Amino acid sequence: MLKGARCETAKCPMERQWRNFPPGMHPYRRAKGTEYAKRLREKQKVKRYYGVLEAQFRRVFAQAQRSTQNTGVALLTLLERRLDNVVFKMGLAASRKSARQAILHGHFEVNGVTVDRPSYCVRQGDRVTVKSREASQKLAKAALEASASRPPQGWLQVNLEQMQGLVVALPSREDVQIPVEENLIVEFCSR
Question: Of 52, 35, 33, nearest to 184 (Cα)?
Answer without folding.
Answer: 35
